Amino acid sequence: MNGSAKTLKNIVLAMVLIMLAAPACKRRGEMGSARESRKETYVKESIESKVREFVYPLPTAFEVTEMLNEIGANYILTLTNSVKNADKYFTEKSKALNLGVYAADLSYNSTYQQKQETMFYIEASKKLSDGLGISGVLTEELAEEVEDNINDKEKLVEIITNAFYDTYNELNRTGKGNLSLLVIAGSWVEALYITTNISENVYHNLEIVKIIHQQKENLDKFWSILEENQNGEYINEIMNELKPVKDIYDNIDQSLSEKDVIAITQEISRIREKFIS
Fold first, then answer.
1. One domain for residues 100 and 139
2. CA 8 to CA 101: how far, in whole Å?
3. pLDDT tens readout for residues 226-265
4. What are the residues whose beta carbons fall under 8 Å from the beta carbon of 139, sequence distance 6 or more?
5. Separation of first and last alpha carbons in the chain
6. Containing domain of residue 28, as a range?
7. Distances from the Cα of 146 to the Cαs of 11, 108, 160, 266, in angstroms?
8. What is the value of pTM for the model shown?
9. Are residues 25 and 68 located together in one domain of the fold?
10. Closest C-alpha among 261, 260, 188 to residue 222
């Protein structure tokens, strides 16, 4: 065999070896990428499981305010608890209840993209959370992040929802589980208050009546949690406050009558007034 033929044979052999090796390298690369992906997923899930040691037990107020927005209900500024009231809440109980109230008001304002009001409610909520000893949740950095994403509704909802979860988690982590339930109570009452007062003719708006009816399920879940924690400070007081509304919901089945809607509206207004005063 002459030199040219031998060289050509060597070149062909090298090309065949390269072609055979390439898929194996690709498979090894893919396996490595898959391992890295699984590793990243594991690390992410591990971090999330640590962060969410205590899982928020109910849908946040965003569920209600988003439904109101979707059915075309108008935004009414005067429905919310004034941010100026934040300075008058001195007791642990009033701070926790109104942190929940402001959480619903924050959901309402951000859902309707009321930019300035959203920032006001972030600041008011921060004041109350600081007063409850959980200053590491609603921080200045969070306020800046909200402001930076004020025009991105989807991102804004994500940021604020995570703040709700973090607040609940931190209160429970620091041995203040009873206060976390007060926050939920305040938020649930305020969201239902907004719903029942967002129109002068609530009963004649079937979509709003549907939203009011859906709160029966959330109240039942919350009531079970309250019963499990009855020995906690303030819990019996909150159960006594919510009992008239619970009784109304317990007596309805598939639909709400006009009488039911009026009764729920009146009771929620009474409870809410007591919470924010």
1. yes
2. 82
3. 999 999 999 999 999 999 999 999 999 788 999 999 999 9
4. 126
5. 103
6. 1-51
7. 63, 15, 8, 35
8. 0.81
9. no
10. 188
